[in-house]
Amino acid sequence: MGIDAGFDMDPPLSKGGVDKQNWGRFIDLIKEQYKDDVQVEIMPNYIKFNVGENPKLPFEGHKFLRFSSKVSGAIASSSGVERYINTVTRVAKAHFGSRVQYWNEGANQYGVHDWKKVSESIRSYEQPDVLETQASITPPLSATDPVKEQGIALFEIQDIPGKGRGLVARFNISKGTRIICEKPLLTAGPMPPNKLEPFLAKAIKAMSKTSQRQFLSLHNNSKGKHPFGGIFRTNALPCGSGSPIGGVYPTACFINHSCIPNAHNNWNSAEKHETIYAIRSIERGAEITIPYDHGGASRERQVFLKDAFGFKCDCSCCSLPPDLLKASDNRRIQIQSLDKAIGDPFRMMSSPHDSLSDCYLMLQVLEQEFDGCASAMIARLYYDAFQISIAHGDQARASMFAERASKARVICEGEDSPETLRVKSLAVKPADHSSFEVYSRKWQTTRDSVPKDLDTVQFDKWLFRQEN
Ligand SMILES: [Zn+2]
């Protein structure tokens, strides 16, 4: 059984005005408070505390009635849930005063709302109201409109000065939201232009009229004797990182580039579709962007973008004033060299401590350069740290790294991406990885030896072996 404790919001908050502002500030504070806490997860629509019975705080305050969990019994005592309840209650009280009503069944106190209503409110966190608003104000779309394929469109296709068409957010989109999920109009592997052209012609002929129109309406930056190939080369997104196969999509292909993008594109190999996720919060009216570049300093990126796509990038990073651009360039160069050093298998084998120290440094540089929004690179970095640890038998750290990698993957690829699922399972069973103890057993630990009494800074130092 066990006893419950927590707090109720009574009366509940209203949808707008001061309540909305206060809730926004409260949520920001909670995020800040727990930003390095691996037990606290930022989901697309709420904050989830992976302790006790996983209490949640929705981003939409008017839905919120109760924050509570069992605070005694098996699930509660191992996770320290009561500490979280107490802290969140204290912060909430500071924002909402007597509307925050703390209760504890151990002291014969009970919440004011009934459980049925509370469960309904918690279920409603999953589906943000913004989508309801959207459905009602979305103008009817014509049959040829690619947006229609998405069901509910968070964006619209607009002319962007100097860039042709692009995608613009119609609503505020929160980090971790799936913006697009679509199947390719066609895919093709690498082949010479004279082979690609008839291949594409055949594929286009077999398409529906709508798909044909969608394909032919895409931009072509290399007009010549191979018009289909030109469209393909201008627009194709790789089906997987580094894959030679490219896919062309009705909507995702309109997304322009930024060196400091707010969205991430990913090919889901299990579902055979492309997804676009918001990797930072995107304000209504802002352009949605993904990276086309392969990193490096601004000059290197500009040369690549000009050669491969025929444009000069004037994103917010490339147009920084000279001194700030120089600092950004230095960070990007450092990211490249750290990435290379971390990926060196010989160093991983002979001096894993140095490799792990580089991961620690890289994490900080990435956070700084991408303003805390480098999900895909951070996911990869944590996975590198996982590999370094598991190759020397350290299951405790490996499982923590895999857990962090999976959280970063969820933001940029979603819960159902094969990579998310793979790293998630490694967090539970790190020793299942093929490189378990392949280099040595010198760091041998078991999964249950993760320290529980460290604060977040100390925990990170332990995790990256930076204690001394
Ligand atoms: Zn740029």
UniProtKB/TrEMBL annotation:
Domain of life from the UniProt record:
Eukaryota
What sequence ranges are listed for the domain SET?
Answer: 150-293
Q: Which SUPFAM superfamilies match?
A: SET domain
Segments traversing the membrane: none
Q: Which InterPro entries match?
A: SET_dom (IPR001214), SET_dom_sf (IPR046341), SET_domain_protein (IPR053185), TPR-like_helical_dom_sf (IPR011990)
Q: Kindly give the Pfam families that the UniProt entry links to this protein.
A: SET
- Specify the protein name: SET domain-containing protein
Q: Which organism is it from?
A: Trichoderma gamsii
